[in-house]
Design brief:
GO molecular function: methyltransferase activity; oxidoreductase activity
Radius of gyration: 20 Å
CATH architecture: 3-Layer(bba) Sandwich
CATH class: Alpha Beta
Distance between the termini: 18 Å
Order of helices and strands: HEEEEHEEHEEEHEEEEEHEEEEHHEEEH
Shape: globular
InterPro entries: FAD-dep_OxRdtase (IPR006076), FAD/NAD-bd_sf (IPR036188)
Protein name: FAD-binding oxidoreductase
Helix content: 25-40%
Bound molecules: flavin-adenine dinucleotide
Largest sheet: 5 strands, antiparallel
Organism: Deinococcus psychrotolerans
Number of helices: 8
GO biological process, one term: methylation
């Protein structure tokens, strides 16, 4: 397994459960899965789109967290539901039309929110999780051999590290996220075109001294975290590479935008900023082998924690059958 974010760590865990001996190689940098609080939110962005596998993904992730906790791992999370305020009737109608009947949801009055909202969609099966703790728990519980290093060359049955060391395996699964996206091009062969339009998008979370009990999201999200809370989103202009996406840091304009979105969700007076976390997410989704026989699971976009574990489980099942 190359890449130790949510995709690689979940794949390592499921592969070990299926009886495989797993080595997980990770460069130990640029991991968007270290996000301090990731929402598990099946109703996406401002479009209200619901992915076909959203409910299955949600349930897979919660079940995995429960399993890891039962095995003694500590993963800060809250299965609290998620609140999605909508600004007007038109948006409400659009979202309502996209909601599958099987996805539990409740439309509520926007009581307790700052003025300006039409109503609130509550998604009782949503919540939040500490990305870093979840990934750490998966790696530990997998029992995988952990190797720190950067892959310089990858083929169907092995990888050469920048250090010159070579690791061999029956199968190689590449889960390199934004930092590793160049391998999706190099090894892409005829599938390379899938990644020509790959976009790297940076975003930042402000770490806050306190947060609401339930996450709220429209534009930006406000969520509890292991300590205090977070306010942020992935909002920077898409870039062509991981480095280019990070180069902008956190522009003042973005900060102003995030604060405005946060204030629309909740009265933030008295709340202090205790830090900042910045990461880069990659899209579009890629879950398939390339022409060289290397399997890829990356491009999870803003759905890494909603769909990552489910897709990792499906990939491992497919490869084990
Ligand atoms: C601000 C922000 C907020 C977000 N909020 C949410 C949210 O609320 N809910 C949600 O579901 N998702 C959210 N996401 C998206 C989520 O973080 C990503 O979808 C997910 O973390 C991607 O996981 P991954 O395993 O594919 O990649 P990553 O976590 O980036 O992991 C890739 C790993 O591969 C390693 N790697 C790369 N190249 C090599 C190489 N050559 N050799 C060895 N190792 C290599 C890297 O070091 C890294 O550790 C957010 C992202 C950001 C930036």
């Amino acid at each position: 397994m190359i890449g130790g974010g949510i995709a690689g760590a979940a794949a390592a865990y499921f592969a070990a459960q299926a009886g495989h001996r797993v080595t997980l190689l990770d460069a130990g940098a640029g991991r968007s899965s270290d996000v301090p609080a990731a929402l598990l939110n099946p109703v996406r962005g401002q479009s209200g789109k619901v992915e076909p596998q959203a409910l299955a993904g949600l349930r897979c992730t919660w079940a995995l967290i429960a399993e890891l906790q039962a095995a003694g791992q500590r993963i800060p999370h809250g299965q609290t539901g998620v609140l999605r305020p909508v600004p007007d009737e038109k948006t409400q109608r659009k979202w309502a039309a996209a909601l599958p009947a099987e996805l539990p949801h409740i439309w509520r009055e926007p009581a307790g929110l700052p003025p300006g909202w039409q109503s609130v969609l509550e998604l009782p099966e949503g919540g939040w999780v500490s990305g870093a703790a979840f990934v750490r728990a998966l790696k530990q519980a997998s029992g995988a051999r952990l190797v720190r290093g950067k892959a310089a060359r990858i083929w169907a049955s092995g990888v050469a590290l920048e250090s010159g060391e070579v690791l061999e395996a029956e199968r190689v699964i590449f889960c390199g996220g934004s930092l590793g996206a160049k391998f999706s091009h190099q090894n892409g062969g005829e599938h390379g075109s899938h990644f020509e339009g790959a976009t790297h998008r940076a975003g930042s979370l402000l770490l806050l001294s306190q947060a609401p009990q339930q996450p709220l999201s429209f534009g930006a999200y406000l969520s509890p975290a292991a300590v205090g809370g977070v306010l942020g989103a992935t909002f920077e202009t898409p870039a062509a590479s991981h480095a280019a996406a990070l180069a902008g840091g956190l522009p003042l304009n973005s900060l102003a935008w995030v604060l405005q979105k946060g204030a629309a969700l909740r009265d933030l007076s008295g709340v202090q900023v205790t830090g900042r976390w910045t990461g880069v997410r990659l899209s579009p989704l890629r879950s398939e082998p390339d022409a060289a026989g290397v399997y890829h699971l990356s491009g999870l976009g803003s759905k890494g924690f909603l769909l990552g574990p489910l897709l990792a489980r499906e990939l491992v099942r497919e490869l084990s059958s």
